[in-house]
Amino acid sequence: xxxxxxxxxxxxxxxxxxxxxxxxxxxxxxxxxxxxxxxxxxxxxxxxxxxxxxxxxxxxxxxxxxxxxxxxxxxxxxxxxxxxxxxxxxxxxxxxxxxxxxxxxxxxxxxxxxxxxxxxxxxxxxxxxxxxxxxxxxxxxxxxxxxxxxxxxxxxxxxxxxxxxxxxxxxxxxxxxxxxxxxxxxxxxxxxxxxxxxxxxxxxxxxxxxxxxxxxxxxxxxxxxxxxxxxxxxxxxxxxxxxxxxxxxxxxxxxxxxxxxxxxxxxxxxxxxxxxxxxxxxxxxxxxxxxxxxxxxxxxxxxxxxxxxxxxxxxxxxxxxxxxxxxxxxxxxxxxxxxxxxxxxxxxxxxxxxxxxxxxxxxxxxxxxxxxxxxxxxxxxxxxxxxxxxxxxxxxxxxxxxxx
Length: 404
Prior knowledge:
about 400 residues, alpha+beta, CATH 1.10.630.10, six-stranded mixed beta sheet, three-stranded antiparallel beta sheet, about 45% helix, about 10% strand
């Protein structure tokens, strides 16, 4: 097969990310590009030229191909951010990534995290009990969506209960975009995470449990499997990697359900729908992260019939794959009873999200409990009046006020 050279896109790259009309929906230009020129040259805000890939099949192919490695843009925030990223699992060094991932993967296996379900259910119940004790109105992000994944992740890592309070200030910090230059509050938050990791490693070197205990034992062997810098970065990374993303998905998922009353009603009457509902929440969710999933070609390779040269950067927005009408019928419709929902919300291939199984359990227990405990839940303000925060790694809800 002869590869197209895509001369026109090369001469006229598209400005990317595309402007969007609402934080709740992907940019319309993404669908237009997918329909007309699914692999196209684009220019990022910093002037970098990349390939934008927009179809499900092509995105999945890139994410699973050995011809591509992870490309992590250098952060513009705190000076320690790049070190944490380099020594965590966000690296283009395939051997290093495999070595580090193997150290923690067993703790996040489906078998292991399924044993955590009763504890996740208990945390959900505790949070909802506190939430409902305050009356018939609440702000769901601060009182439920944020503390749930933070609490669970702290327990998985093996961090004592008193330490969890510090994590409330870390929500704006992410390995994907740690801070904006000059944002003193975010800089301080990142430094606090760094200091916290140092303190907890020192304090629990002899008695740590959970993932932290395992990592400390590996580090103590001094056999080259885990350096001091990698140990520190792993603690920072595990704290941040699954916290804000899961919290944001809970908030966006509840919002999607409340904006589709017939779907909420279906869940009320058929609780068994919670599993497909969570998969649809994951497929449908739009985070605002359109430049985070990047790969670098390590060989010349054809993507969707377009020749991508060695060294070229490719962007694979997962929302484009998950809204591809060639893969999903009526792709822009939120349908909790959708069949064959093989979405790419957790990525695909070597860098498939390590915490996917845990996130699913948290979402399943959260949604099931909300529908069961608060069947009359509804938004306290119109959806278009909700406040969003575009400055972190995700375009996230600042608040989700609800009544029941």
